[in-house]
Amino acid sequence: MKRIFISLIIVLFTAFLSCVSEPAPAEIPVQTVEAQPAEMFPEEPPAGSQEQEFDPSSISREMFDVTKSDVQKLIADLNRVIRARNYNTWVSHLGEAYLDKISSQEFLASTSSQPYLKNKKITLTSAKDYFDQVVVPSRANDRVDDIAFVSENRVKVYTINDKGQRLRLYDLENHEDGWKIIN
User: Fold this and answer.
1) Which residues contact 76 (CB under 8 A, 6 or more apart)?
2) 94: DSSP letter
3) Secondary structure percentages of the chain, helix, strand, coil, to 5
4) Sheet containing strand 154-160, strands side by side
5) Quick one: pLDDT at residue 148?
6) What is the pLDDT of residue 160?
7) Residue range 10-39: mean pLDDT, rounded
8) Going by DSSP bridges, is the β-strand pair 166-175/178-181 parallel, antiparallel, or unpaired?
9) Among the four residues 23, 82, 161, 177, which has the most C-beta atoms within 10 Å?
10) 3-state secondary structure (DSSP) of residue 183
């Protein structure tokens, strides 16, 4: 009887943990294609960087609302650009380091090895291939539900899926010529 009781407690405890554990956070853009590993995207800033020292509570409600509205307009514009398959305009929205990253042979090879592309026998050889084969099928209908300031000029953009999960769409940085995708 004691064994059954202990076994029952272990089963209930395991079931409890599986119910309350949070899903793994999305570290990649939301896609309709299979998820891609986080290492394909630029790394988080190193400890001690400006983003680590920034206090998000320093952002006023007005600044938050204005920034969120600006970001929503940007993403709506990006959706139109992506649906139109306008690579040159899409590239103009990318930060220089991010464009370099997605143009690198390591990134393209790693992305090409993902099941979605591998099963279709697609090999990416350029940032344009990445745009056509990954971005266009997965990013034409993004929706901004929330943003989080990482610094005064950098935000993470989130959508909330039908399961209530908060998924990161983009990391954006505000430059002199507007918001740029940096991840």
Assistant:
1) none
2) B
3) 50, 15, 35
4) 146-151, 154-160, 166-175, 178-181
5) 95
6) 92
7) 38
8) antiparallel
9) 82
10) coil
Q: What does the block give as tokens for 171?
A: 């990391």
Other residues' Cβ atoms within 10 Å of the Cβ of residue 27: 16
3-state helix/strand/coil string of 104-146? CHHHHHHHHCCHHHHHCCCCCCCHHHHHHHHHHHHHCCCCCCE
Q: What is the band of 52 on the pLDDT scale with cuts at 50, 70, 90?
A: low
Residue 91: what residue type? V
The answer, as to whether pTM is greater than 0.90, is: no
Q: Which residues pair with 155 in a beta bridge?
A: 149, 172
Reference 41, options 120, 113, 99; nearest CA is 99
Residues in the chain: 183
Q: In this structure, are residues 123 and 144 in contact, taking their beta carbons and an 8 Å threshold?
A: no
Instruction: Give the Cβ contact number of residue 164 at 10 Å.
Output: 7
Structure tokens at 165: 């999960």
Tens-place pLDDT, residues 139-174: 889 999 999 999 999 999 999 999 999 999 999 999
Separation between Cα atoms, residue 149 and residue 84, nearest integer Å: 30
Contact 82, 31 (CB under 8 A): no
